[in-house]
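Ticket reopened. Same input as before:
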Amino acid sequence: MGKSFSQPAALSATHTHYCPGCTHGIVHRLVAEAIDDLGIREKTVGIAPVGCAVLAYNYFNCDFQEAAHGRAPAMATGIKRVRPDLMVFTYQGDGDLASIGMGEIIHAANRGEKFTTIFINNAIYGMTGGQMAPTTMPGQRATTAPLGRDTGETGMPIRMANLLGELVTPAYVTRQAVLKPQQVNKAKKAIRQAFQYQLENRCFSFVEVVSTCPTNWGMTPVDALKWAEDTLLPYYELGDYKVPE
Amino acid sequence: MAKVLMKGNEAIGEAAIRAGCKNYFAYPITPQSEVAEYLSKRLPEEGGVFLQGESEVAVGYMIFGAAGAGERVMTTSSSPGISLMSEALSYITAAQCPAVFVNIMRGGPGLGGILPSQGDYFQATKGGGHGDYHLLVLAPDGVQEAVEMTMQAFTLAEKYRNPVMILGDGLIGQMMEPVEFPDDLKTEPTNKDDWATNGMAHRKSDKRNLVKSLFLDPSALNNNNLVLKAKYEQMKKEEVQYELYNADTDYQVLITSYGTMSRVCRTSIDMLKSEGIETAMLRPKTLFPFPEKQVFDAAGKQSCKAVISIEMSMGQMVEDVERCVKGRRPVEFYGECGGEIPSPEKIIEIIKALL
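Engineering reply: fixed in the latest deploy. New output:
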Protein backbone atom coordinates (compact mmCIF):
# COMPACT_ATOMS: atom_id res chain seq x y z
CA MET A 1 0.00 0.00 0.00
CA GLY A 2 1.34 3.41 -0.94
CA LYS A 3 1.85 6.32 1.33
CA SER A 4 -1.51 7.97 1.96
CA PHE A 5 -0.36 11.06 3.82
CA SER A 6 2.85 13.04 3.44
CA GLN A 7 4.15 16.55 3.54
CA PRO A 8 3.37 18.51 0.37
CA ALA A 9 6.45 19.36 -1.68
CA ALA A 10 5.24 22.96 -1.82
CA LEU A 11 5.47 23.22 1.97
CA SER A 12 8.87 23.62 3.62
CA ALA A 13 9.92 21.70 6.74
CA THR A 14 10.23 24.93 8.75
CA HIS A 15 8.24 25.13 11.98
CA THR A 16 5.69 27.92 11.76
CA HIS A 17 5.46 30.72 14.30
CA TYR A 18 1.67 30.57 14.39
CA CYS A 19 -0.09 30.40 17.76
CA PRO A 20 -1.70 27.18 19.03
CA GLY A 21 -5.14 26.75 17.48
CA CYS A 22 -4.52 29.21 14.66
CA THR A 23 -5.89 28.04 11.33
CA HIS A 24 -3.15 29.58 9.15
CA GLY A 25 -1.33 26.25 9.22
CA ILE A 26 -4.35 24.45 7.76
CA VAL A 27 -4.76 26.96 4.97
CA HIS A 28 -1.02 26.91 4.19
CA ARG A 29 -1.27 23.18 3.78
CA LEU A 30 -4.35 23.41 1.54
CA VAL A 31 -2.57 25.90 -0.72
CA ALA A 32 0.52 23.69 -0.84
CA GLU A 33 -1.58 20.64 -1.69
CA ALA A 34 -3.32 22.50 -4.51
CA ILE A 35 0.06 23.56 -5.90
CA ASP A 36 1.31 19.96 -5.71
CA ASP A 37 -1.89 18.53 -7.24
CA LEU A 38 -1.58 20.82 -10.24
CA GLY A 39 2.19 20.30 -10.53
CA ILE A 40 2.88 24.02 -10.68
CA ARG A 41 5.34 24.55 -7.84
CA GLU A 42 8.27 25.38 -10.11
CA LYS A 43 6.39 28.16 -11.81
CA THR A 44 4.59 29.56 -8.79
CA VAL A 45 5.35 32.88 -7.12
CA GLY A 46 3.63 33.63 -3.83
CA ILE A 47 3.16 37.09 -2.36
CA ALA A 48 3.41 37.39 1.40
CA PRO A 49 1.37 40.10 3.09
CA VAL A 50 2.05 42.23 6.13
CA GLY A 51 0.29 40.55 9.01
CA CYS A 52 0.63 37.18 10.72
CA ALA A 53 1.52 35.53 7.41
CA VAL A 54 4.37 37.96 6.72
CA LEU A 55 6.80 35.05 7.06
CA ALA A 56 4.77 32.77 4.76
CA TYR A 57 7.77 32.69 2.43
CA ASN A 58 9.55 30.58 5.04
CA TYR A 59 6.80 27.97 5.01
CA PHE A 60 6.20 27.53 1.30
CA ASN A 61 8.74 25.97 -0.98
CA CYS A 62 8.47 28.14 -4.07
CA ASP A 63 9.57 31.60 -5.20
CA PHE A 64 8.14 34.37 -3.06
CA GLN A 65 7.91 38.11 -2.94
CA GLU A 66 6.96 40.10 0.13
CA ALA A 67 4.67 43.09 -0.31
CA ALA A 68 4.10 46.19 1.76
CA HIS A 69 0.90 46.28 3.83
CA GLY A 70 -2.09 45.82 1.52
CA ARG A 71 -0.15 46.03 -1.75
CA ALA A 72 0.04 42.34 -2.59
CA PRO A 73 -2.58 42.52 -5.37
CA ALA A 74 -0.64 45.33 -7.10
CA MET A 75 2.57 43.35 -6.79
CA ALA A 76 0.86 40.24 -8.14
CA THR A 77 -0.47 42.32 -11.03
CA GLY A 78 3.08 43.44 -11.85
CA ILE A 79 4.42 39.89 -11.87
CA LYS A 80 1.52 38.31 -13.73
CA ARG A 81 1.39 40.99 -16.41
CA VAL A 82 5.07 40.70 -17.29
CA ARG A 83 5.26 36.91 -16.80
CA PRO A 84 1.82 35.47 -17.64
CA ASP A 85 3.36 31.99 -17.69
CA LEU A 86 3.99 32.12 -13.93
CA MET A 87 1.33 31.12 -11.39
CA VAL A 88 0.90 33.92 -8.88
CA PHE A 89 -1.00 33.96 -5.60
CA THR A 90 -1.38 36.44 -2.78
CA TYR A 91 -2.02 35.32 0.79
CA GLN A 92 -3.55 38.13 2.81
CA GLY A 93 -5.32 38.80 6.07
CA ASP A 94 -8.27 41.06 6.76
CA GLY A 95 -6.34 44.12 7.95
CA ASP A 96 -4.07 43.85 4.93
CA LEU A 97 -6.72 43.18 2.29
CA ALA A 98 -9.94 44.73 3.60
CA SER A 99 -8.50 47.84 5.23
CA ILE A 100 -5.26 49.31 3.90
CA GLY A 101 -5.31 47.25 0.71
CA MET A 102 -8.98 47.71 -0.24
CA GLY A 103 -8.12 49.80 -3.31
CA GLU A 104 -5.60 47.33 -4.64
CA ILE A 105 -7.84 44.24 -4.28
CA ILE A 106 -10.93 45.88 -5.81
CA HIS A 107 -9.07 47.13 -8.85
CA ALA A 108 -7.08 43.94 -9.38
CA ALA A 109 -10.35 41.96 -9.23
CA ASN A 110 -12.11 44.41 -11.50
CA ARG A 111 -9.33 44.26 -14.10
CA GLY A 112 -9.72 40.51 -14.02
CA GLU A 113 -6.05 39.95 -13.17
CA LYS A 114 -5.25 36.30 -13.68
CA PHE A 115 -3.90 35.56 -10.24
CA THR A 116 -5.32 33.94 -7.09
CA THR A 117 -5.96 35.55 -3.72
CA ILE A 118 -6.29 33.56 -0.52
CA PHE A 119 -7.98 35.83 2.01
CA ILE A 120 -7.84 34.88 5.69
CA ASN A 121 -10.76 36.43 7.57
CA ASN A 122 -10.38 36.07 11.32
CA ALA A 123 -12.17 39.29 12.24
CA ILE A 124 -9.15 40.91 13.91
CA TYR A 125 -5.60 42.22 13.46
CA GLY A 126 -3.40 39.36 14.58
CA MET A 127 0.25 40.32 14.29
CA THR A 128 -0.09 43.79 15.79
CA GLY A 129 -1.95 42.34 18.75
CA GLY A 130 -5.70 42.25 18.42
CA GLN A 131 -6.80 45.62 17.10
CA MET A 132 -10.17 46.13 15.40
CA ALA A 133 -10.32 45.05 11.75
CA PRO A 134 -12.88 46.02 9.09
CA THR A 135 -14.19 42.48 9.57
CA THR A 136 -14.54 42.67 13.38
CA MET A 137 -18.08 41.76 14.45
CA PRO A 138 -20.48 44.23 16.14
CA GLY A 139 -19.77 44.20 19.86
CA GLN A 140 -16.62 42.10 19.42
CA ARG A 141 -13.86 43.32 21.70
CA ALA A 142 -10.52 44.41 20.32
CA THR A 143 -7.61 46.30 21.84
CA THR A 144 -8.76 49.40 19.95
CA ALA A 145 -12.41 48.68 20.70
CA PRO A 146 -12.20 47.76 24.39
CA LEU A 147 -15.97 48.02 24.89
CA GLY A 148 -16.69 46.09 21.72
CA ARG A 149 -17.07 47.32 18.14
CA ASP A 150 -19.52 50.22 18.03
CA THR A 151 -21.00 50.06 14.56
CA GLY A 152 -22.46 53.56 14.98
CA GLU A 153 -18.88 54.83 15.00
CA THR A 154 -17.14 52.33 12.74
CA GLY A 155 -19.81 50.89 10.46
CA MET A 156 -20.66 47.26 9.91
CA PRO A 157 -18.08 44.55 9.11
CA ILE A 158 -17.09 44.39 5.45
CA ARG A 159 -18.00 41.21 3.61
CA MET A 160 -15.26 40.97 1.00
CA ALA A 161 -16.56 37.99 -0.96
CA ASN A 162 -20.00 39.61 -1.25
CA LEU A 163 -18.43 42.90 -2.30
CA LEU A 164 -16.11 41.43 -4.94
CA GLY A 165 -18.91 39.19 -6.18
CA GLU A 166 -20.82 42.33 -7.16
CA LEU A 167 -18.18 43.35 -9.73
CA VAL A 168 -19.29 42.80 -13.31
CA THR A 169 -15.95 41.43 -14.52
CA PRO A 170 -15.97 37.61 -14.57
CA ALA A 171 -14.25 36.04 -11.57
CA TYR A 172 -14.28 33.11 -9.18
CA VAL A 173 -15.21 34.42 -5.74
CA THR A 174 -15.98 32.07 -2.92
CA ARG A 175 -16.14 32.05 0.89
CA GLN A 176 -15.01 28.94 2.72
CA ALA A 177 -14.16 28.04 6.31
CA VAL A 178 -11.73 25.71 8.08
CA LEU A 179 -13.57 25.23 11.37
CA LYS A 180 -14.61 21.60 10.75
CA PRO A 181 -13.09 18.74 8.73
CA GLN A 182 -15.91 18.90 6.16
CA GLN A 183 -15.25 22.60 5.67
CA VAL A 184 -11.53 21.95 5.27
CA ASN A 185 -12.24 19.46 2.50
CA LYS A 186 -14.53 21.95 0.74
CA ALA A 187 -11.97 24.74 1.17
CA LYS A 188 -9.33 22.51 -0.37
CA LYS A 189 -11.53 21.97 -3.44
CA ALA A 190 -12.17 25.69 -3.71
CA ILE A 191 -8.49 26.60 -3.48
CA ARG A 192 -7.62 24.02 -6.09
CA GLN A 193 -10.40 25.34 -8.30
CA ALA A 194 -9.09 28.89 -7.89
CA PHE A 195 -5.62 27.84 -9.08
CA GLN A 196 -7.22 25.82 -11.87
CA TYR A 197 -8.99 28.92 -13.20
CA GLN A 198 -5.68 30.75 -13.16
CA LEU A 199 -3.95 27.88 -14.91
CA GLU A 200 -6.58 28.12 -17.65
CA ASN A 201 -6.04 31.89 -17.77
CA ARG A 202 -9.78 32.26 -17.15
CA CYS A 203 -10.20 34.92 -14.48
CA PHE A 204 -9.26 36.42 -11.16
CA SER A 205 -9.88 33.94 -8.36
CA PHE A 206 -10.56 34.77 -4.72
CA VAL A 207 -11.01 32.38 -1.82
CA GLU A 208 -12.04 33.93 1.48
CA VAL A 209 -11.42 31.59 4.39
CA VAL A 210 -13.21 32.18 7.68
CA SER A 211 -10.56 31.44 10.29
CA THR A 212 -9.87 31.74 14.00
CA CYS A 213 -7.51 33.76 16.17
CA PRO A 214 -7.74 32.22 19.65
CA THR A 215 -4.90 34.38 21.01
CA ASN A 216 -6.39 37.73 20.12
CA TRP A 217 -9.96 36.64 20.69
CA GLY A 218 -8.90 35.61 24.21
CA MET A 219 -10.30 32.08 23.84
CA THR A 220 -9.13 28.52 23.87
CA PRO A 221 -8.75 27.01 20.38
CA VAL A 222 -11.90 24.93 20.89
CA ASP A 223 -13.95 27.90 22.12
CA ALA A 224 -12.64 29.93 19.18
CA LEU A 225 -13.91 27.34 16.70
CA LYS A 226 -17.32 27.40 18.36
CA TRP A 227 -17.44 31.20 18.49
CA ALA A 228 -16.55 31.42 14.82
CA GLU A 229 -19.23 28.89 13.95
CA ASP A 230 -21.88 30.69 16.03
CA THR A 231 -20.93 34.31 15.39
CA LEU A 232 -18.98 34.62 12.14
CA LEU A 233 -20.70 32.11 9.88
CA PRO A 234 -24.24 33.58 10.16
CA TYR A 235 -22.82 36.92 8.97
CA TYR A 236 -20.10 35.60 6.66
CA GLU A 237 -22.18 33.04 4.76
CA LEU A 238 -20.23 30.29 3.06
CA GLY A 239 -20.55 29.52 -0.62
CA ASP A 240 -19.69 30.73 -4.11
CA TYR A 241 -20.38 34.40 -4.76
CA LYS A 242 -19.30 34.40 -8.37
CA VAL A 243 -18.34 31.68 -10.80
CA PRO A 244 -17.06 32.34 -14.32
CA GLU A 245 -19.46 31.26 -17.07
CA MET B 1 20.51 57.85 -37.15
CA ALA B 2 18.80 61.05 -38.25
CA LYS B 3 17.52 63.57 -35.77
CA VAL B 4 13.80 63.68 -35.09
CA LEU B 5 11.77 66.43 -33.46
CA MET B 6 10.10 65.04 -30.35
CA LYS B 7 8.39 66.17 -27.20
CA GLY B 8 10.42 65.29 -24.11
CA ASN B 9 7.79 63.04 -22.56
CA GLU B 10 7.31 61.06 -25.76
CA ALA B 11 11.05 60.81 -26.31
CA ILE B 12 11.46 59.31 -22.81
CA GLY B 13 8.83 56.70 -23.68
CA GLU B 14 10.55 55.84 -26.95
CA ALA B 15 13.95 55.70 -25.22
CA ALA B 16 12.61 53.10 -22.78
CA ILE B 17 11.48 50.87 -25.64
CA ARG B 18 14.85 51.21 -27.33
CA ALA B 19 16.49 50.26 -24.05
CA GLY B 20 14.59 46.97 -24.20
CA CYS B 21 11.99 47.95 -21.61
CA LYS B 22 8.73 46.30 -22.63
CA ASN B 23 6.85 46.89 -19.39
CA TYR B 24 5.34 50.15 -18.23
CA PHE B 25 2.86 50.89 -15.45
CA ALA B 26 1.69 54.43 -14.67
CA TYR B 27 -1.01 56.71 -13.37
CA PRO B 28 -1.88 59.97 -15.17
CA ILE B 29 -0.54 63.25 -13.79
CA THR B 30 0.35 66.55 -15.39
CA PRO B 31 2.92 67.41 -16.75
CA GLN B 32 4.02 63.91 -17.78
CA SER B 33 0.86 62.13 -18.97
CA GLU B 34 2.15 62.12 -22.56
CA VAL B 35 4.58 59.34 -21.63
CA ALA B 36 1.65 57.09 -20.75
CA GLU B 37 -0.33 58.17 -23.80
CA TYR B 38 2.62 57.50 -26.07
CA LEU B 39 3.41 54.12 -24.56
CA SER B 40 -0.24 53.02 -24.52
CA LYS B 41 0.06 53.07 -28.30
CA ARG B 42 3.68 51.99 -28.77
CA LEU B 43 4.05 49.15 -26.28
CA PRO B 44 1.30 46.96 -27.75
CA GLU B 45 3.01 47.41 -31.13
CA GLU B 46 6.17 46.03 -29.53
CA GLY B 47 4.37 43.16 -27.82
CA GLY B 48 4.93 44.84 -24.48
CA VAL B 49 2.85 45.50 -21.38
CA PHE B 50 1.09 48.82 -20.79
CA LEU B 51 -1.11 49.16 -17.75
CA GLN B 52 -2.73 52.21 -16.21
CA GLY B 53 -2.86 51.47 -12.49
CA GLU B 54 -5.53 52.67 -10.08
CA SER B 55 -3.13 54.92 -8.14
CA GLU B 56 0.54 55.79 -7.89
CA VAL B 57 0.63 53.69 -4.72
CA ALA B 58 -0.47 50.61 -6.65
CA VAL B 59 1.77 51.44 -9.61
CA GLY B 60 4.78 51.50 -7.28
CA TYR B 61 4.07 47.87 -6.37
CA MET B 62 3.30 46.80 -9.92
CA ILE B 63 6.80 48.03 -10.68
CA PHE B 64 8.14 46.16 -7.62
CA GLY B 65 6.43 42.93 -8.69
CA ALA B 66 7.62 43.13 -12.27
CA ALA B 67 11.15 44.11 -11.26
CA GLY B 68 11.23 41.31 -8.69
CA ALA B 69 10.29 38.86 -11.44
CA GLY B 70 13.40 40.03 -13.29
CA GLU B 71 11.80 42.01 -16.10
CA ARG B 72 12.89 45.47 -17.27
CA VAL B 73 10.25 47.94 -16.10
CA MET B 74 9.62 51.68 -15.89
CA THR B 75 7.11 54.16 -14.56
CA THR B 76 6.82 57.90 -14.95
CA SER B 77 5.09 60.41 -12.74
CA SER B 78 5.31 63.91 -11.38
CA SER B 79 6.01 65.23 -7.89
CA PRO B 80 2.80 64.39 -5.94
CA GLY B 81 2.72 61.00 -7.64
CA ILE B 82 6.33 60.33 -6.70
CA SER B 83 5.42 61.04 -3.08
CA LEU B 84 2.90 58.20 -3.30
CA MET B 85 5.45 55.91 -4.97
CA SER B 86 8.07 56.64 -2.35
CA GLU B 87 6.77 53.84 -0.14
CA ALA B 88 7.46 51.35 -2.92
CA LEU B 89 10.84 52.95 -3.66
CA SER B 90 11.94 52.22 -0.11
CA TYR B 91 10.85 48.57 -0.42
CA ILE B 92 12.30 48.08 -3.91
CA THR B 93 15.63 49.47 -2.79
CA ALA B 94 15.67 47.28 0.33
CA ALA B 95 14.80 44.20 -1.74
CA GLN B 96 17.49 45.17 -4.30
CA CYS B 97 15.47 45.19 -7.49
CA PRO B 98 16.29 47.20 -10.62
CA ALA B 99 13.65 49.65 -11.89
CA VAL B 100 13.48 53.04 -13.56
CA PHE B 101 11.35 55.86 -12.14
CA VAL B 102 10.97 59.14 -14.01
CA ASN B 103 9.93 62.28 -12.13
CA ILE B 104 8.92 65.18 -14.38
CA MET B 105 8.84 67.69 -11.54
CA ARG B 106 6.09 70.25 -10.99
CA GLY B 107 5.85 72.89 -8.30
CA GLY B 108 5.02 72.01 -4.70
CA PRO B 109 4.55 71.48 -1.84
CA GLY B 110 1.04 70.08 -1.79
CA LEU B 111 -0.84 70.21 -5.05
CA GLY B 112 1.45 73.13 -5.91
CA GLY B 113 1.21 73.86 -9.61
CA ILE B 114 1.76 72.15 -12.93
CA LEU B 115 4.65 74.32 -14.12
CA PRO B 116 8.33 73.26 -14.06
CA SER B 117 10.12 73.08 -10.72
CA GLN B 118 13.14 71.52 -9.05
CA GLY B 119 11.49 71.18 -5.69
CA ASP B 120 11.99 67.42 -5.40
CA TYR B 121 15.80 67.42 -5.13
CA PHE B 122 15.72 66.45 -1.47
CA GLN B 123 13.09 63.79 -2.09
CA ALA B 124 15.08 62.27 -4.95
CA THR B 125 18.57 62.40 -3.49
CA LYS B 126 17.99 61.96 0.22
CA GLY B 127 15.31 59.28 0.06
CA GLY B 128 11.63 60.24 -0.16
CA GLY B 129 10.60 57.08 1.62
CA HIS B 130 11.62 55.64 4.97
CA GLY B 131 14.88 54.01 5.95
CA ASP B 132 18.48 54.23 4.82
CA TYR B 133 18.50 54.18 1.06
CA HIS B 134 19.47 56.13 -2.02
CA LEU B 135 18.30 56.19 -5.59
CA LEU B 136 20.80 56.77 -8.35
CA VAL B 137 19.53 60.09 -9.72
CA LEU B 138 20.17 61.35 -13.25
CA ALA B 139 19.26 64.94 -14.17
CA PRO B 140 18.93 65.69 -17.90
CA ASP B 141 19.13 69.26 -19.20
CA GLY B 142 17.03 68.68 -22.31
CA VAL B 143 15.32 66.14 -24.52
CA GLN B 144 18.54 64.68 -25.93
CA GLU B 145 19.97 63.98 -22.51
CA ALA B 146 16.59 62.74 -21.26
CA VAL B 147 16.73 60.08 -23.97
CA GLU B 148 20.35 59.13 -23.29
CA MET B 149 19.85 59.01 -19.54
CA THR B 150 16.64 56.99 -19.78
CA MET B 151 18.47 54.36 -21.78
CA GLN B 152 21.48 54.46 -19.47
CA ALA B 153 19.19 54.21 -16.44
CA PHE B 154 18.28 50.59 -17.19
CA THR B 155 21.93 49.52 -17.37
CA LEU B 156 22.69 51.32 -14.11
CA ALA B 157 19.61 49.92 -12.38
CA GLU B 158 20.65 46.41 -13.36
CA LYS B 159 24.31 46.93 -12.49
CA TYR B 160 23.39 47.94 -8.94
CA ARG B 161 20.01 46.23 -8.56
CA ASN B 162 18.75 49.56 -7.30
CA PRO B 163 16.06 51.91 -8.61
CA VAL B 164 17.31 54.73 -10.81
CA MET B 165 15.42 58.01 -11.03
CA ILE B 166 15.40 60.40 -13.95
CA LEU B 167 14.78 63.79 -12.39
CA GLY B 168 13.50 66.12 -15.08
CA ASP B 169 11.09 69.00 -14.87
CA GLY B 170 7.91 70.06 -16.63
CA LEU B 171 9.80 72.02 -19.26
CA ILE B 172 11.89 69.03 -20.31
CA GLY B 173 8.75 66.91 -20.48
CA GLN B 174 6.71 69.40 -22.45
CA MET B 175 9.15 71.00 -24.90
CA MET B 176 10.03 69.67 -28.32
CA GLU B 177 13.67 69.43 -29.38
CA PRO B 178 15.58 67.62 -32.09
CA VAL B 179 16.83 64.34 -30.71
CA GLU B 180 19.07 61.58 -31.97
CA PHE B 181 18.50 58.15 -30.45
CA PRO B 182 21.58 56.15 -29.48
CA ASP B 183 21.88 52.54 -30.64
CA ASP B 184 19.33 50.20 -29.08
CA LEU B 185 20.38 48.62 -25.81
CA LYS B 186 20.92 44.97 -26.66
CA THR B 187 22.32 43.63 -23.40
CA GLU B 188 20.29 41.64 -20.93
CA PRO B 189 21.11 41.17 -17.25
CA THR B 190 22.85 37.84 -16.78
CA ASN B 191 22.38 37.29 -13.05
CA LYS B 192 18.59 37.14 -12.84
CA ASP B 193 18.55 33.49 -11.80
CA ASP B 194 20.47 34.42 -8.67
CA TRP B 195 17.77 36.62 -7.22
CA ALA B 196 14.61 37.11 -9.33
CA THR B 197 11.32 35.28 -8.77
CA ASN B 198 11.36 34.23 -12.41
CA GLY B 199 10.10 30.73 -11.63
CA MET B 200 12.19 27.81 -10.36
CA ALA B 201 11.61 25.87 -13.55
CA HIS B 202 13.76 28.41 -15.41
CA ARG B 203 16.73 27.89 -13.14
CA LYS B 204 19.33 25.17 -13.08
CA SER B 205 19.25 24.69 -9.31
CA ASP B 206 16.28 23.88 -7.08
CA LYS B 207 17.06 27.02 -5.08
CA ARG B 208 14.04 29.24 -4.68
CA ASN B 209 14.38 33.01 -4.80
CA LEU B 210 12.90 35.43 -2.30
CA VAL B 211 12.35 39.13 -2.95
CA LYS B 212 11.86 40.70 0.44
CA SER B 213 12.75 43.53 2.75
CA LEU B 214 11.93 42.10 6.19
CA PHE B 215 14.94 41.32 8.39
CA LEU B 216 13.75 40.77 11.96
CA ASP B 217 17.19 39.73 13.17
CA PRO B 218 19.10 42.95 13.99
CA SER B 219 22.37 41.67 12.58
CA ALA B 220 20.66 40.55 9.35
CA LEU B 221 19.07 43.98 8.93
CA ASN B 222 22.34 45.70 9.66
CA ASN B 223 24.03 43.45 7.10
CA ASN B 224 21.45 44.28 4.45
CA ASN B 225 22.00 47.98 5.11
CA LEU B 226 25.75 47.45 4.81
CA VAL B 227 25.22 45.79 1.44
CA LEU B 228 23.18 48.79 0.31
CA LYS B 229 25.78 51.20 1.67
CA ALA B 230 28.54 49.42 -0.20
CA LYS B 231 26.58 49.92 -3.42
CA TYR B 232 26.21 53.65 -2.75
CA GLU B 233 29.94 53.90 -2.09
CA GLN B 234 30.61 52.12 -5.37
CA MET B 235 28.26 54.53 -7.18
CA LYS B 236 30.21 57.44 -5.69
CA LYS B 237 33.42 55.99 -7.13
CA GLU B 238 32.13 54.89 -10.53
CA GLU B 239 29.04 56.79 -11.59
CA VAL B 240 29.58 60.51 -10.98
CA GLN B 241 28.71 62.54 -14.08
CA TYR B 242 28.97 66.29 -14.45
CA GLU B 243 29.71 69.02 -16.96
CA LEU B 244 32.01 71.99 -16.53
CA TYR B 245 31.17 75.08 -18.57
CA ASN B 246 33.64 77.92 -19.22
CA ALA B 247 35.79 76.50 -16.43
CA ASP B 248 39.11 76.83 -18.26
CA THR B 249 38.96 80.60 -17.63
CA ASP B 250 39.91 82.62 -14.55
CA TYR B 251 36.30 82.68 -13.44
CA GLN B 252 35.30 84.87 -10.53
CA VAL B 253 32.09 83.06 -9.71
CA LEU B 254 31.29 79.36 -9.90
CA ILE B 255 27.65 78.59 -10.57
CA THR B 256 26.20 75.21 -9.65
CA SER B 257 22.98 74.40 -11.44
CA TYR B 258 21.30 71.41 -13.08
CA GLY B 259 18.54 70.53 -15.52
CA THR B 260 16.53 73.27 -17.19
CA MET B 261 17.97 75.93 -14.87
CA SER B 262 21.51 75.19 -16.07
CA ARG B 263 20.55 76.13 -19.64
CA VAL B 264 19.58 79.61 -18.53
CA CYS B 265 22.80 79.89 -16.53
CA ARG B 266 24.81 78.96 -19.64
CA THR B 267 23.24 81.88 -21.50
CA SER B 268 24.04 84.20 -18.59
CA ILE B 269 27.67 83.01 -18.57
CA ASP B 270 27.97 83.75 -22.31
CA MET B 271 26.43 87.20 -21.89
CA LEU B 272 28.72 88.04 -18.98
CA LYS B 273 31.70 86.85 -21.00
CA SER B 274 30.85 89.33 -23.75
CA GLU B 275 31.03 92.02 -21.06
CA GLY B 276 34.45 90.73 -20.02
CA ILE B 277 33.27 89.00 -16.85
CA GLU B 278 34.30 85.36 -16.53
CA THR B 279 32.04 82.97 -14.67
CA ALA B 280 31.83 79.18 -14.86
CA MET B 281 29.30 76.49 -14.16
CA LEU B 282 29.53 73.03 -12.71
CA ARG B 283 26.42 71.09 -13.73
CA PRO B 284 25.88 67.80 -11.90
CA LYS B 285 24.38 65.25 -14.28
CA THR B 286 24.15 62.74 -11.45
CA LEU B 287 22.55 64.27 -8.37
CA PHE B 288 23.26 61.09 -6.46
CA PRO B 289 26.12 60.32 -6.54
CA PHE B 290 26.93 64.02 -6.30
CA PRO B 291 30.15 65.34 -7.88
CA GLU B 292 31.62 66.09 -4.45
CA LYS B 293 35.31 66.33 -5.27
CA GLN B 294 34.67 68.21 -8.50
CA VAL B 295 32.66 70.90 -6.70
CA PHE B 296 35.39 71.20 -4.06
CA ASP B 297 38.10 71.52 -6.71
CA ALA B 298 36.19 73.97 -8.93
CA ALA B 299 35.34 76.20 -5.97
CA GLY B 300 38.99 76.27 -4.97
CA LYS B 301 40.29 77.87 -8.15
CA GLN B 302 42.34 80.91 -7.16
CA SER B 303 40.29 83.37 -9.25
CA CYS B 304 36.99 82.13 -7.79
CA LYS B 305 35.54 84.49 -5.19
CA ALA B 306 32.21 82.83 -4.57
CA VAL B 307 30.02 79.88 -5.41
CA ILE B 308 26.31 80.27 -6.10
CA SER B 309 23.76 77.53 -6.51
CA ILE B 310 20.96 78.56 -8.83
CA GLU B 311 17.87 76.37 -8.74
CA MET B 312 14.15 76.29 -9.41
CA SER B 313 13.67 75.61 -5.70
CA MET B 314 13.90 77.46 -2.42
CA GLY B 315 17.38 76.07 -1.80
CA GLN B 316 17.95 72.33 -1.92
CA MET B 317 21.02 71.33 -3.95
CA VAL B 318 22.82 74.26 -2.30
CA GLU B 319 23.06 72.16 0.86
CA ASP B 320 25.13 69.57 -1.01
CA VAL B 321 27.20 72.35 -2.59
CA GLU B 322 27.94 73.85 0.84
CA ARG B 323 28.85 70.40 2.11
CA CYS B 324 31.31 69.89 -0.73
CA VAL B 325 32.86 73.38 -0.78
CA LYS B 326 33.76 72.79 2.87
CA GLY B 327 33.92 76.48 3.68
CA ARG B 328 36.75 77.34 1.31
CA ARG B 329 34.53 79.92 -0.48
CA PRO B 330 31.26 81.62 0.43
CA VAL B 331 28.28 79.70 -0.96
CA GLU B 332 25.29 81.76 -2.06
CA PHE B 333 21.89 80.75 -3.37
CA TYR B 334 19.29 82.06 -5.74
CA GLY B 335 16.08 80.31 -6.64
CA GLU B 336 12.51 80.72 -7.77
CA CYS B 337 9.97 77.94 -7.65
CA GLY B 338 6.53 79.19 -8.54
CA GLY B 339 6.85 77.77 -12.01
CA GLU B 340 8.52 80.68 -13.78
CA ILE B 341 12.12 80.08 -14.74
CA PRO B 342 14.53 82.90 -13.78
CA SER B 343 15.69 84.84 -16.87
CA PRO B 344 19.34 85.19 -17.96
CA GLU B 345 19.14 88.91 -17.10
CA LYS B 346 17.99 88.10 -13.59
CA ILE B 347 20.88 85.66 -13.13
CA ILE B 348 23.33 88.28 -14.40
CA GLU B 349 21.99 90.80 -11.90
CA ILE B 350 22.40 88.29 -9.06
CA ILE B 351 25.94 87.39 -10.11
CA LYS B 352 27.08 90.98 -10.52
CA ALA B 353 25.99 91.64 -6.96
CA LEU B 354 28.53 89.01 -5.86
CA LEU B 355 31.49 90.66 -7.58
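Chain B has two domains: 4-194+229-234, 242-352. Chain B touches chain A at residues 22-23, 25, 49, 51, 53-55, 57-69, 71, 73, 87-88, 91, 95, 197-201, 208-214 (CB under 8 Å). Please confirm and we'll close it.
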